[in-house]
Amino acid sequence: MFVLDAAGTVIHASDEFAAHLGADAAALRGRPLSDFVADGDWPDVRGTLDAVRRASGWENHRCRCRLSGGSGGTAARATEAEADVEIEFSPYPGGDGGGGDDGGEGDGCRAPGSDTERVVGSLCREPSEPTTARLHTERDRFDHLFDLIDDAVIEFEIVGIEPVVRAVNPGFETVFGYDAAEVRGESLNDFIVPPDADDEAVDFDQRTADGKANHAIVTRQTAWGRREFLYRGIPYSRGDGKQYGFSIYSDITSQRRAREHLQVLQRVLRHNLRNEMNVVLGMAEEIREATTDPRVDHAAVRIAQHTETLLRVSEKARTAAAVLDDQRPDEVVDATETVRAVVEPRRTRFPAATFDLDLPPSLPVSVGPKLAQALANVVENALEHTPDDVTVRIEAKRCENDATLRVSDDGDGIPEIEWAAVFGDEDITQLSHGSGLGLWVVKWVVESAGGRVDYDRRDGWSTVELTLPLADESR
């Protein structure tokens, strides 16, 4: 293996490559690759290098040429080295940017046109017996995965513009309801693509033919009707000039329908609950104003109190749904600024409470604006279910790869029935739906960002600790 800079100069060479040329690795460094390539072969080698550098994504290119040891090789070794060899050139993986037009994330391999446009070269050899045995082992492992995975997997060849089925796994037969013998050798699209999705399928097939991966939520036809799938398309080649690919379909119909049903029920419930409770609250106030009977007045007060509790629960459910429905990717936010933004308005609302903050000047974390909602729920829980003169301590610090936010209060603590359901293994039907719902929002927000929530009660202090992914400067 060897590495070339943008000018085609060798900046690193392995001992094995140097030995092939009959030279010392250190003697190769600083010399142009053209010194070691037979004169008549250099144009092909240079063209292959240019193709690698012009590629928009991660592409390998090969060429055949004759290598010699140049002035540094022995005559005997040079004779052996002048035999034809095949070299594979690849983008250098340590570059500083760049991205391919692959419908996904950039490849991060290099910055096209810059002086860091390095290329890695390696000699291609015929597989040795151990290598051949390893390839057989890898194939056996793949076949095992192919057969046992529950998702539907199809191996196909692009013929013209059609994905012709070459093999399907048992999962495909179970999920789509078609026998392997029935679809093998046929166009996959004829069996599973609904008429209104033809254009979409053609686009996917064209991307596969171009060597690009696919990833989408799609609707496909099964023997029992339409279903929704998470679709992933993976192209590959066998070196025979043809283009192949794998399609993987994960059935997500039930999950998506359940989510849709839940969203509709939540909206109807929240809307109706809020409207009806506002009517009840208004009637309770009218009763209080019209009665002189202490017992009736007491009953009206109780009605109003419980109605306001239900309205708060409805509002928390609305907030929870908004947070959970937010599908935007996580962003970097400053946890220190978020803590201050959450605490400041509550100093006015809870004048008897004491806030003790221990925060670094800045603490970037990867969780996005939803952190404010989670932290607000923790602080509200510490303020609303404790005496008026409660002390709330908030500490933030940086760890190796994480940041921790600790919110502590000297109140009575979270009731066991609530924290055991949220932080433990208790049945969730036992939680109290007032403060408990807020704690669930905290858990969902933090865990969706790859973090963790812990609760501890010790020495008269209750502490909720949020562990969040620390965002470094590159993010």
TrEMBL record:
GO molecular function, one term: ATP binding
Histidine kinase domain location: 268-472
SUPFAM superfamilies: ATPase domain of HSP90 chaperone/DNA topoisomerase II/histidine kinase, PYP-like sensor domain (PAS domain)
Transmembrane segments: none
Superkingdom, natural source: Archaea
Key words of the record: ATP-binding, Kinase, Nucleotide-binding, Transferase
EC number: 2.7.13.3
Keyword check for Transcription regulation: no
Top-rank EC class of the record's enzyme: transferase
Reaction catalysis annotation: ATP + protein L-histidine = ADP + protein N-phospho-L-histidine
Pfam families (alphabetical): HATPase_c, PAS_4, PAS_9
PAS domain span: 1-56, 138-196
Start and end residues of each stretch annotated as Disordered: 88-121
Keyword hit for Transferase: yes
Protein name per its UniProtKB record: histidine kinase
Organism: Haloferax sulfurifontis
